Amino acid sequence: MAHADRRGHHALNGRTRNYILRVPANYDNSRPYRLVFGFHWNGGTAGDVDSGGTSGYPWSYYGLRSISNDSAIFVAPQGLGNGWANSNGEDLTFVDDMIRQLDAGLCVDTNQRFAGGFSYGGGMSFALACARPTVFRAVAVYAGGQLSGCNGCTPQNPPEPARGSLTHVVTTYSGCRAGYPVAWAAYDAGHTPGPVDGSAGDFEPGERSWTRAVVWNFFTQFDDTAPTPTTFRLRNEGSGRCLDVNGANAANGTPMIVWDCHSNANQQFTQNGARCRCWANACTSRPTPPPARGCRSRTATVAPASSGSSTATARSATVRAGCAWMSTAGAPPTAPRSSRGAATTAPISAGREHRRTSEGGT
C-alpha cells in the first residue's frame, strides 16, 4: 500500500539469499529512516511477513508497517529451508551483508535499526541482540526461543496474567543500563505473535492485537543517537576473543593483548569523550571522530528487482565511529522463569506464550 515492494537477491557462499524490501512511498533521500527487519517463523516465508497473511496490510511486518506512518524502511529476509538455523553463522552474515547493501543504497539512520520475529524468527532476533549489539538498537521477540545468551538487566520474575484470564501484563525491567530498557509482555493465549485480549485462539486478526502498539512504542522511544554504556568489552567478532590489559597494569606502555573473554576489570572499558578508558584510567589511542549525521547524496542501486534492476537516488548512511562496545551493550537480561518453565526475553517488548512451558525455537 504505502510502501514500494522491491525484491533483493544476495549471493553468499555460492547460495542466493533473498529478501523483500519496503521503501516508503514518500521516500526522501535527504532524510535518514528507521530500518526494521521482520523475521519469519519456522516454515514461514518472507512473503508471509511482508503480506501480513490473512489480515493483509494491517498485520504486515507484525503490524508495524501499517502504524509506522511511512517513517521506516522494512525488510523481510528469507531463511534457508524456511528457518534460521544460522549454521556456521551464515544467517548473521546474511544480515550483515543486507545491512551493507541497504546502507549503501538508501538513507538509513544507523542508530535506528530494529528487528522482530515470531518463534524461530524471534530466536533469530534475540541472537542479533547478543551478536550485533552496536548494529541493532532494539529487538522484539514474539514467543521466541533463546538461541544465544547474553545478560543486561537485573534478573527478576515479572508477573503473569492468571490462567484463563485471556489478558496480558507488560513489565518494564529494573537495573538496566541507561539507554537500554527492557520490557517483558506475558499473555494468556496460544502460540501466536498477535494475541488479542479476551480471545484464546492462535489466529485472531492481527490488527486487533495489542502487540502492534506495544512494540512500535518501544521502538520509537529511541532517538537517533547511540547511548553510551557505563562499561563494555571490545570483542572481535571473528575470533570471539577480547582485548585485555595485560596483568591489569596501568603503567604507560602496557601492552594490550587478545585473551579469552571474561568479566574482570582488565577487560572492562568506558567511553570518555574521545578516549577509551580501561580500569585504572589508562587510555587507548584517540579514535577517529564520528562524521556529521545525515546522508550524502548519490545515485545507487537499491536492490535488484525480480524482473530487472531498480535504481533510486539515495544517500549513504553514516556509520558510528569511536569506541565500540562489542559485548553486552543492548543485550537482554537473564530470561525470566515461571513455574511453567523457561521463557525468553530481549531488549524490547517480548511477547511470550503463557500456556506452553517453554520455547524451543520453532
What is the topological layout?
Elements: E1 3-12, E2 15-24, E3 33-39, H1 46-51, H2 64-67, E4 72-77, H3 90-105, E5 108-118, H4 120-131, E6 138-142, E7 168-172, E8 183-187, H5 211-220, E9 242-245, E10 256-259, E11 269-272, E12 275-278, E13 282-283, E14 296-305, E15 308-316, E16 337-338, E17 341-342, E18 350-353
Parallel strand pairs: 3-4, 3-5, 5-6, 6-18, 8-18
Antiparallel strand pairs: 1-2, 2-4, 7-8, 9-10, 11-12, 12-13, 14-15, 16-17
Overview of this protein structure:
Mean pLDDT is 74; it is low at 277-292 and 297-362. Helix content is 13%, strand content 29%. The chain is globular, with a radius of gyration of 21 Å. It contains 5 helices and 18 strands. It starts with a strand and ends in a 9-residue tail after the last strand. It is an alpha/beta fold. Strand 11 and strand 12 form a beta hairpin. The protein has a 9-stranded mixed sheet, with helices on both faces.
Provide the low-confidence segments as ranges: 277-292, 297-362
The tally of helices reads 5
Biggest β-sheet strands, sense, barrel: 9 strands, mixed
The averaged pLDDT comes out at: 74
Order of helices and strands: EEEHHEHEHEEEHEEEEEEEEEE
Number of strand elements: 18
Shape: globular
Q: Strands of the largest sheet, in order across it?
A: 1-2-4-3-5-6-18-8-7
> Using only CA atoms, what is the Rg?
21 Å
N- to C-terminal distance: 30 Å
What fraction strand?
A: 25-35%
Oligomeric state, counting identical vs distinct chains? single chain
Q: Approximately how much helix is present in the residues?
A: 10-25%
SS content category: alpha/beta
